[in-house]
Amino acid sequence: MRQITAGLFISLDGVVGEPQDWHFPYFNDEMGAAVGAQLASADTLLLGRETYDSFAGAWPEREAAGGEDAGMAKALGDARKIVVSRQDLEFTWRNSEQLEGDLVEAVTELKRRPGATSIAMSGSPSVVQQLLAAGLIDELHLLVHPIALRSGKRLFEEGTPIPLRLVSAQTFTTGVLHLIYASADATGSASYDDAKVHLAAETAHPA
């Protein structure tokens, strides 16, 4: 089964909405490499409509311009791009199509299809939220910015807990944390009394 990786810019207090308003002061070569690596690992992109519109409005022009990021632009253009939207869409960017049917069912079937590489998501927080809740995201790549926005759409809102396992962590010179989480089994039950037992053992036998 193919894996889905989801990459998101996120503030210290969990906001993922409107990153164009707060993200760019923290962008540097380290972040560019992290984003590029996540997208380069996939031959298929799964995007929400707003994220797709942003990509389609920029990357084809960058590819045509032949600048420093033309290689990345070409890779994105060559990739299969599947767009999640309730509206009927028309596309001008090559290799673009609309996801048909129910989101969870369609993505489950997409993961089952043969493929040597992963399926990547970039931004598209509303779609990521739904797929996280359905257990369909295999890796969550969070670029945690050192800013508390105090308002805006958050990635994790009220609902059933989603257990995750930290795979790697890297600190950029800007103070951004690059955290990669994988899905995990549900945590076991524990109580305050269990914590007291561990604390007592640690106190009796310090490292």
Could you describe the 3D structure shown?
Residues 3-177 form the Bacterial bifunctional deaminase-reductase C-terminal domain. This is Dihydrofolate reductase. GO terms for molecular function: 5-amino-6-(5-phosphoribosylamino)uracil reductase activity. The protein is an alpha/beta fold and 207 residues long. It has one domain (4-200): Dihydrofolate Reductase, subunit A, CATH 3.40.430. 33% of the residues lie in helices and 24% in strands. An eight-stranded mixed sheet has the order 4-3-2-5-1-6-8-7. The longest helix is centred in the C-terminal third of the chain and has 13 residues, at 192-204. The radius of gyration is 19 Å and the shape is globular.
